[in-house]
Specification:
The chain is an alpha/beta fold. The protein folds into two domains: 7-222, Alpha-Beta Complex (Spore Coat Polysaccharide Biosynthesis Protein SpsA, Chain A), CATH 3.90.550; 226-315, Response regulator (Rossmann fold), CATH 3.40.50. The protein has helices at 17-28, 48-58, 72-82, 101-111, 132-143, 147-152, 169-175, 185-195, 217-220, 226-244, 255-266, 292-304, and strands at residues 7-13, 35-42, 62-67, 87-90, 96-97, 115-125, 166-168, 199-211, 248-251, 271-274, 284-287, 313-315. Helix 1 (17-28) runs parallel beside helix 2 (48-58) and helix 8 (185-195) runs parallel beside helix 10.
Length: 317
Amino acid sequence: MSEPAAVSVLLPVRDAAPFLAEALDSLRRQTFEDLEILVHDDGSTDDSRSIARRAAQEDSRIRLETGSPRGIVHALNALAARAGGDLLVRMDADDVSAPTRVERLVEAARARPAASFFASRVRYVPRAGLSEGVLRYETWINALLDHESIVRERFVECPLPHPAWAIRRETLERLGGWADGPFPEDYELFLRAVDLGIRFHKVDEVLLDWREGDHRLSRTSPRFSRAAFFELKARHLVPFLAATGRPVVVFGTGPAGKRWTKRLREGGLEVDATDGVHANPEAFVIGTCGTPEGREKTRRDLDAAGLVEGADYLCVQ
């Protein structure tokens, strides 16, 4: 009986025929070869299954499983249950991995035994027609490389792009896998990992081409609505603030500040709102500016007032 591969690539598929062959080819060309490529076809109605089946006939490392359409959470957990590798590498069926992607992630995991969650920088494709907002998000997410900056920004958005993840299998088992619910499954798992003190690292290289388009679940599913993101953040922020035992000041009285003030009070917290640097030295401050420029101004103001980010304040969106 052969030894299990060191790395298991988890590739959920649903109606990805236009892109799947390129995605699989990029995995077959990896410079790190001790891997298995696990494909779960989640009830595709196009040619995805036949494309994956042909690739599996050509490369024994590709192992196809098919099922009825049950969604990406079920597909990911089914893939993780089949995995033999100690490092689980995520990818979507419409993305493309750089040839050294798995190698770089393995190197990062070996060099940082205290970390359990890894990713890399990403590049949205195709480049033509990308909106200013998408490019701004790409810049933001690619700037967050070390554990401290990743955790610092956790209530802005998910700082680790889901298709670029790599996670130690024992850590995923500890977390209980991906959860299904009215929320983005990647962000929810990431926030649970933060709550457990799990450490993160991002490789300072673009190793994944991340396909942008109207077909993405983040564009079509209500689980990725602004309201779903807000409620998920609140579910984790409220107990974090409660555990500090400090009163809370919301820094910002615009629509975002009012929304957060209302939600935090509903969570049972003592909350005041201000449009200037607060006067209560005992309070924990929540900055609610939504733009990167606004967050940086908030940080400058609060740092100048002697507050320490993470210990005395956090920025949210």
